[in-house]
Amino acid sequence: MELEVWLLVVATVVALVAIGLALVVVGQQRALRTAEDARNAADDAAPTEPAGPVGPLLAFVANPSKNGMGQLRPAVVARCAAENLREPLWFETTVDDPGVGQTREALARGADVVVAVGGDGTVRAVAEAMVGTGRPMGLLPMGTGNLLARNLDISVTDREEAFDVALHGMDRAIDVGWLRVDRPAPTKDGSGKKDDESQAPADTKDHIFLVIAGLGFDAAMVADTDANLKSKVGWVAYFLAGFRHLHGRRLEMVITLDDRPPVTARLRSLMVGNCGRLPGGITLIPDAVIDDGIHDIAAIDTRGGIMGWAQLFGEVMMQGFGVTNDLPNKIGRIDHTRAKKVQLHVSEGEQVQVDGDVLGRAIDVSTWVDPGALIVRAPVPRLSSK
Q1: Among 69, 100, 108, 126, whose CB has the most other CB atoms within 10 angstroms?
Q2: What distances in angstroms separate CA 194 from CA 7, 65, 178, 187, one per listed residue?
Q3: Alpha carbon of 316 to those of 35, 41, 66, 266, 269: distances in Å?
C-alpha cells in the first residue's frame, strides 16, 4: 500500500511539472505572437518606400537647333519616370562638336543606350562614337531626311513610338560605311581656302555614313539646298535645288571596285549605298541590305536634257516596285553593282556628300564597309497572322 501511494505521489508531481512546462511554453508562444503582431502593425503603419528605379540608363544626345526640342526634354524625363527608369542623361550638341564628344561622355558615365535626337548629322556623329562599343544606339528622328530611321522602319512622325523602339526594341548589328577624301580639290584660284563654301575642299579625315554616300549630282543638289526653305517644306527642298543642276555637266570618273581593274565612265553621279530608302517613298537602291557586309553601288547617268532626267526618274520609281527596264541605249539610266571597297577619281574635282552632309570638293575618294560594327535599337518584327 505504501508503494502505491508513493507511485501516486510521483505521478502527480510529474503531471504538475508537465503542466507547468506546457503553460510556460504556451506563454512564450503567446508573447512571441504578440511581439510579431506588434511588428507587423508597426510595418503597416509605417510609410511604404517606393521601389528604386530599375532598367537601363538612357542618355540623349540632342541637337538644340531642331524645332520642338525645348518641349522634348521634359517629356523624355517624364516618360523615363513613368517607366521607372533612372533619370536620363541629357547632352546637347554644338557647332564645334555635333555629337561625338557628348556620346563618348555618355558612355563613360555608364549609359546603357545612347539615343540620337536630331537629324542625319546628329545620327552620324553619335554613331561614330558608338561604333565598336557593343552598346546600342537609339533614334528619336527630328530632322528633314531621317534616312537611317526610315530604313529601319522607325517612325519619323510619332515620337512616342520611336521612344518605345529605343527602350524596348531589339538590338540589331548593322554595317557602317566609311568615306575618306584621299585628295581634296583646290578652290578655283588654287589657294585651297574655304572662303567660298561651295568650292571648299573636302576634309581628308574618315567620314562615317550609314545610308548613302555620293559624288556628283546628288552632292551638288544637297550643297545647293536652301536651309530656310528646308526648314519650311522639308525634304522637298532637295528636289527644288536639284532642278538647278539638271543641265550640269557629266563627269568623267575612274572607278575601281575591290581588286577589279579600273573602269572609266561618264556619269552624273555615283552613289555607294549601305541601304537604299529615301524620303518621298523613293527606293534608290532596292537590293541594298543594311547588314549583309557589302555595299551596293548605283551609277546614274542621263543624256538628252529633260527627257533623260524624266526617263531616269521613271527608272527609279519602277525599280522601287521591283520593275526593271533593260532596254539598250536609254538616255536616262541607273546601273547597279556591289563591292566592299570603292575608289573614285574625278580629275576636276566634285562635291561629295555622306547621308546628306556635304563634305566639300574632292578629286580622289575611297569608301569601304565595316560589317556589323554598330548596334542599333530597331523595331521588333511583327509575327505573321497566318
Answers
A1: 126
A2: 120, 24, 24, 8
A3: 81, 75, 31, 19, 14
Tell me if the domain spanning 177-371 has CATH number 3.40.50.300. no
Backbone angles phi, psi at 27, to 5 degrees: -65, -45
Higher pLDDT, 169 or 190: 169
Q: Report the alpha-carbon distance of residue 222 to residue 237 in Å, rounded.
A: 9
Q: In terms of Cα–Cα distance, which of 267, 305, 269, 294 is closest to 284?
A: 269
pLDDT tens per residue, range 75-116? 999 999 999 999 999 999 999 999 999 999 999 999 999 999
Query: For 3-29, what is the mean pLDDT?
Result: 51
Distance CA 4, CA 218 (A): 121
Integer Cα distance of 194 and 102 in angstroms: 27
Tell me the average pLDDT across 248-266.
Answer: 93
CA atoms of 77 and 332, how far apart (whole Å): 51
Asked if 88 and 76 touch (Cβ cutoff 8 Å), the reply is yes
The reply to whether CATH 3.40.50.620 applies to domain 58-168 is no
Q: Taking the CA of residue 347 as centre, how many other CA atoms within 13 Å lie in the half-sphere pointing to its CB?
A: 7
Give residue 249's pLDDT: 78
To 10 degrees, the CA torsion angle through 164, 167, 173, 175? Answer: 60
- What cell was used for 68? 520642338
Q: What is the pLDDT of residues 137-178, one digit of tens each?
A: 999 999 988 999 999 999 999 999 999 999 999 999 999 999
Which candidate, 65, 92, 60, places its Cα nearest to that of 76?
60
